[in-house]
Amino acid sequence: MSTVENQLADIEEEIEREVPSDITITEVRYEGPELVIYTRDPKRFARDGDLVRKLASKLRKRITVRPDPASLSRPEEARETVLNVIPDEAGVTDLDFHTDTGEVVIEAEKPGMVIGRHGSTLREITQEVGWTPEVVRTPPIESSTVKNVRNFLKQERNERRDILERIGRQIHREEMSDDQWVRITTLGCCREVGRAAFILSTPETRILIDCGDKPGADDEVPYLQVPEALGSGASSLDAVVLTHAHLDHSALIPLLFKYGYDGPIYTTEPTRDLMGLLTLDYLDVAAKEGRAPPYESEMVREAIKHTIPIEYGNVTDIAPDIKLTLHNAGHILGSSIAHFHVGDGLYNVAFSGDIHYDDTRLFNGAVNEFPRVETLVLESTYGGRNDYQTDQEDSERKLLHTLNNTLERDGKVLIPAFAVGRSQEIMLVLEEAMRNGDIPEVPVHLDGMIWEATAIHTTYPEYLRDDLRERIFHDDSNPFLAEQFNHIDAGEEERQEVADGGPCIILSTSGMMEGGPILSWIEHLGTDPDSTLVFVGYQAQGTLGRRIQNGWDEIPVGNGNGRGRGNTLTLKMDVETVDGFSGHADRQGLENFVRTMNPRPEKVLCVHGDESSTQDLSSALYHEYNMRTFAPKNLETFRFI
Amino acid sequence: MSTVENQLADIEEEIEREVPSDITITEVRYEGPELVIYTRDPKRFARDGDLVRKLASKLRKRITVRPDPASLSRPEEARETVLNVIPDEAGVTDLDFHTDTGEVVIEAEKPGMVIGRHGSTLREITQEVGWTPEVVRTPPIESSTVKNVRNFLKQERNERRDILERIGRQIHREEMSDDQWVRITTLGCCREVGRAAFILSTPETRILIDCGDKPGADDEVPYLQVPEALGSGASSLDAVVLTHAHLDHSALIPLLFKYGYDGPIYTTEPTRDLMGLLTLDYLDVAAKEGRAPPYESEMVREAIKHTIPIEYGNVTDIAPDIKLTLHNAGHILGSSIAHFHVGDGLYNVAFSGDIHYDDTRLFNGAVNEFPRVETLVLESTYGGRNDYQTDQEDSERKLLHTLNNTLERDGKVLIPAFAVGRSQEIMLVLEEAMRNGDIPEVPVHLDGMIWEATAIHTTYPEYLRDDLRERIFHDDSNPFLAEQFNHIDAGEEERQEVADGGPCIILSTSGMMEGGPILSWIEHLGTDPDSTLVFVGYQAQGTLGRRIQNGWDEIPVGNGNGRGRGNTLTLKMDVETVDGFSGHADRQGLENFVRTMNPRPEKVLCVHGDESSTQDLSSALYHEYNMRTFAPKNLETFRFI
Fold first, then answer.
1. Model pLDDT, residue A559
2. Which terminus of chain A has fewer Cβ atoms in its 10 Å neighbourhood, N or C?
3. What single-letter DSSP state applies at residue B234?
4. Which residue in chain B is spatially nearest to A185 when comparing CA positions?
């Protein structure tokens, strides 16, 4: 017997001792980080709500109980009973019975009502039919991403089960080394923004944190080829952890599977879906621009198949000597600070990913309380000594003022915006301003991936700011469903209609005007002096957005949509910039994050910022808080223990 | 054709263009770092002394010219001619003709006379017979190590030629990467003494510098298993560079071959021989102490077979982007500072190995002038704030005083000493003192490996201090051949005779009294109150030597030589300690080395010293010279470019 078999046999014995003698355990196995107990008496387990909790604390593992397939009622019978137990208001839209695992996946508009108070309805379902219920939300706005991901995972269920079992055995393997050390190797995003990638390693384990591209520099990818990363084989990686879905953190995650990686990706559920959306778009853009994409869309599916979603705050074993906990980072939907607890109290490292420290309309501010942290790896995008941003309240006032000016003169407002994050923040501003009568109620058209990204946001309200979540759950007033929001889904024809119509607001991708429907909107509205182009996000050097901000008014048009080539248009629109809507903490926010962090870390590595920003922040934190701080270069290794 | 074939074809064309048209080139190939030109006209090459120099500077390669085997006179004929050309006083002891390479290896007592002024005699030999002469010294004291190494290499000549060709092709392969970086990874000897090992890496190349054990801690070996080292396969290493033969730098070099390494070891010729001597002894000691040796003696032979000896000051290509130059380190015979020039003027790093900055009797002080050095990796054995040693002159006075006291009362002086380095230094002190009449002329008995180590020293006088070398070469007065030195080569019987005889001095291993014949001498002399035990080297914590220094006088005896077990002896001898004979620079020496270094490095990594020594030195160099200094931990990676 392998050591894992022995271990499982020991665990089974221990479980037998702990549970009442009338409960029969038929199998114990690992599935990813979870220990799955199969029993002929699922109803008995469901009756004793405390039993699983007691076992989990005794065994120090996350536990799932499933019915032995032999003990199950037939799906046709069970279906009716389940629907009877669940209140009608829950709005069940799908029931899917999996005879291999005894799970029934319930898709409902109001998952909370399927769960019941402290899980009482779920337990009732099991008591009645034996099946283990799993609940997912029916997206309030139909999302093709969410639908595709769910269908794909359903279809790959068998293979995924095998993958999870293999990963589970890896996680729970015996530790081999007597040595103790903890190291971080920087593979990207040091003294630069983009290509985030780090290795966290111990004698036992190697974890990759993030794997992004560098916008505007296709050839500058993370140093994956060095021996500390994949140079000694992709199989030498134990796990990948993804902090959030932005491409500078996620774009090259699928590439790992092309390189032979076959292990888990730990991230939140919304990040998984957004990663799917954004990486497929990334391949699309590469194809449109005639660049060879670094991997095929098949690899995106591999990445999704290997993703193990974890929720904020859940401590998860991801290796024999490493526990991972994700915490809200306040940056975009599902964005996380990844906290690693190494060994049995040996060392703790937190990777901030990208953070926003103050609350925004969309998200609570980043978490900065941890049980322990000795080293913090901190983003420094706005770490420079002068990187202070306008307060969001002032920015909003300025935005509303601009909107009113334009709408009053019957103009249209065109806002280039990133699909994920900033668009939804602006939507919330607009919805509230219209509700309060601060601006006129005009249609708000959403073009490009914005609608789809918004649909994903509405699928995961648990990840939104608490008052917004409350409003959605309890007042049943989801601002994203407000009727003024219109999805541009009929292409050029619809755009022409909008352009010919009355005053309105248009949010369109891409955020830096480097492609996407925004270029078409510029053709429609660019020569209209009553309309206004409003920038609400950072425009990088070299992009069309930055050039227009700098006063350029000869805009190349007609590229890529078939109508004439090489023409130019003389911009007559008003151009305004409203900053302060960044998803990143500014210098003050970064300092506040560290100052109020509990516990205060001993060491801080300032990364993900240009050279002067990381050095400024590193030096300021050192002088103000007397920590050991560093502004690492790429390809360095720091040892902590 | 492979790229190397193409390259060689191009080079051959270029050579054809450069040499006079009556010289026929038959083949051009790589052998290790050298480019070997085979010609039907070796005599023409020999006539034009400048031709090879011009080609070397044109091609920027080290060049050797060899006769095409077809153009050679028969060895029987050539032998007589060669012996006629060489003056009789050269003392030729062997001639060995190699028909495969056209080389004739000439072993002579006075190699200088075989070489002639600026190589004139060598050229004359080629002009007369066509063969390419190679000269080695006949050891003035017969050395079994030197004899065995030479015989072994002669016997493995064919395989070695294949190895050299393979290595040569590796060195001259095309560069693959557009990237540029230079990194050092610490695998051992950081914040500790022992297990020296570093990786120097670029996108192209990975070099291991040293690979030693840690005395007194058998289980603490360099971190070879990490991916930056051998974790991604031993074949990922391009080269190994050995600074010197002490076991804390060399002990695990043969282990690399057990792990599958098959590349070159660059070091000086005496270091190669001493490494052979010391690693074989290391295996011997392990066997005697009942420990499993980490490798078999076969691996020592592999290491010797893969060694490419290089001389101080010779710039050698060891990878497409790295040139190595070894410089005298003043520490032991053949000890080197390894200077790496990376890229075409990109970066320069020097690894000090172990250094002695001031001249000693044996060696010139360490070289600290380089064309360029940006980073220095500096030993810090005596880097602590109080690590100042007694001046050697004072130490010598104290030693002679102690000797005189003991010898005057007809006592014997027993000196435990390391075989390599300190023994020869003391021999020089004794020889001079006797020659000057400062101490009586008494026999000096050399026991253990000291005689053999001394024989190796006499084989390589080029590596000794210049005035000592001059004395040996020109005055023909080799102090190591002084008649008072006696080799204890008849074991216990001879020791008994010496113990029963008159006043004398005995130098014996091991230096810390942890084993070896010194234990037998203690049995013979330990109870004689007229005799004196004199410590001249560092006694580590936990060794018998340290315990005796601390006043212990109950000495366990009779272990290991068959005469009784478990007895103790009450020490009655005088015990004296004379320090100041260290092979290491003290704190002052280290500071002087850096202060007068030309050019002054930008960064210094202080290694090879305990935690406080490395930190003290790092901090002092930072404050005094405003350099960026570090006291790395093991397993860290520093990036310089």
1. 55
2. N
3. G
4. B637
Which residue stretches of B350-490 are H helix? 392-408, 422-435, 450-459, 466-474
Residue-wise pLDDT for A481-529, tens only, equals 999 999 999 999 999 999 999 999 999 999 999 889 999 999 999 999 9
Q: Of A183, A206, A633, which has the smallest distance from its Cβ to B635's Cβ?
A: A183
Q: Are A616 and A385 in contact (CB under 8 A)?
A: yes
Burial class (CB in 10 A: 0-12, 13-18, 19+), A393: exposed
User: At A178, which helix (H) or strand (E)?
Assistant: none
CA-based R_g, chain B, Å:
26
ipTM of the complex: 0.84
Taking only the tens place, the pLDDT of each residue in A115-137 is: 999 889 999 999 899 899 999 99
DSSP secondary structure of A308-342? EE--TT--EEEETTEEEEEEE-SSSTT-EEEEEEE
Q: Which residues of A583-622 are buried (b: 16+ CB within 10 A; e: fewer)?
A: bbbbbebbbbbbeebeeebebbbbbbbeebbbbbbbebbe
Please give the Cα distance from A118 to A316 (Å, whole number).
Answer: 21
Residues of B in contact with A222 (CB under 8 A): none
Q: What is the DSSP string of B328-382?
A: E-SSSTT-EEEEEEETTTTEEEEE--S---S--SSSPPPP-B-S--SEEEEE-TT
Cβ–Cβ below 8 Å for A636 and B638: yes
Please, what's the b/e burial string for B462-499 (b: 16 or more CB within 10 A of its CB; e: otherwise)? Answer: bbbbeebeebbeeeeebbbebebbbebeeeeeebeebb
Suggest the residue from B219, B226, B628 to mutate for an interface test with chain A (most A CBs closer than 10 A): B226
pLDDT of B31 > 60? The answer is yes
Chain B neighbors of A181, CB-CB under 8 A: 635
Query: How far, in Å, are A105, B334, B337 from residue B376 at the CA level?
Result: 63, 20, 10
Contact B35, B63 (CB under 8 A): yes
Facing A638 at nearest CB: one of B183, B206, B636: B636
d(CA B487, nearest CA chain A) in Å: 46
Q: How far is A267 from chain B (nearest CA, A)?
A: 26
Indicate the residue type of B207.
Answer: I
Closest chain B C-alpha to A637 CA, distance in angstroms: 4
Q: Which residue of B has its CA nearest to A178?
A: B219
pTM, 2 dp: 0.90
Cβ separation A636–B635 shorter than 8 A:
no
Residues B458-517 pLDDT 10s: 999 999 999 999 988 877 789 999 999 999 999 999 999 999 999 999 999 999 998 899
